[in-house]
Sequence to fold (289 residues):
Amino acid sequence: MKVLIIGASGQVGGALASLCVRRRLEVYGTSRRGQGFLYLDLADPSSVAGAFKAAAPDLVFLCSAMTNVDNCEREPELARSVNAEGPALAAEECRKAGAKLVYFSTEYVFDGASGPYGEDAPACPVSVYGRTKLEGEKAALALDGALALRTTVVYSHNTASKNFIMQLVSNSRSGAKMRVPSDQFSNPTYAPELAAAALDLAGLDAAGVYNVVGPDWMNRYDFALKACAAFGFDPAFLEPRLTSELGQIAARPLKAGLKTEKLAAKLGRRLPPVEDSLRKIAAIIKQYE
Ligand SMILES: NC(=O)c1ccc[n+]([C@@H]2O[C@H](COP(=O)([O-])OP(=O)(O)OC[C@H]3O[C@@H](n4cnc5c(N)ncnc54)[C@H](OP(=O)(O)O)[C@@H]3O)[C@@H](O)[C@H]2O)c1
Fold:
């Protein structure tokens, strides 16, 4: 089976690429930054067609997106082009190739008034990122058999990524204070486990919307404290703050998070507890020291 990972240079795409290699699948990855990747820019239709022509995939993971939530607010047209129109282009190429499409979506399709949310809760995004990702999700799901995986607060040990855990490690090392929201509730999700669930759901030919997140619902500050405990860091550099004090440009869903009953019923498992995944990262950090 030939797998195309759109956005293989990112955190989730990188975890998927490693897993596909371990499972001995023929895998192609894209990036706009060359070197070992097929070139693909979601804002450039000809590059999307070119990557599909080169890979001739059976299965496509669409991980690429404009993921900086505040930048989406600053540049709404670019966000719409990448997050909403890009997935429509990819879905059309999948239709032509007869490939299955797996789209990565987000809990930011909700307003955060009453999470955690099930798959059938009505979407109500409060930011450009959330609105454009929801449009992308709809464009992907317009393709027969497509799968949309909603996830959140994805973390991993990845030196190329600025995910929350890598920011925490970097601030702890430099001694820089880190302001962390204590009122944003969600389910931290370990990227390698998200990748494994995504590949397994695709293998089961799951379709429609599935929530794929870690089992623990907590606020970001508590997540940071758990990470410090796992890594042996003194948490004194952490400063709990209300979201309203952080001056972020885009509105955040506060009481967010996602329910995973549908995932558990389909896969026969949930993702492992956050402590288990943080322990794995602690072991990697130790190796690097
Ligand atoms: N991280 C999270 O906490 C989180 C939460 C919910 C949902 N998600 C969703 O999960 C997916 C993966 O997230 P991630 O954490 O892996 O993101 P990431 O690490 O920020 O990676 C983003 C990827 O998108 C690619 N990209 C950006 N602009 C592009 C464009 N115009 N055309 C093509 N590719 C472009 C980047 O590739 P190059 O720059 O190399 O081209 C990179 O591979 C995204 O769809 C995101 O919306 C993530």
Remarks:
- Residues 7, 9-13, 31-33, 40-43, 63-67, 82, 104, 106, 133, 151-154, 161 surround NAP (CB under 6 Å).
- The mean pLDDT is 97.
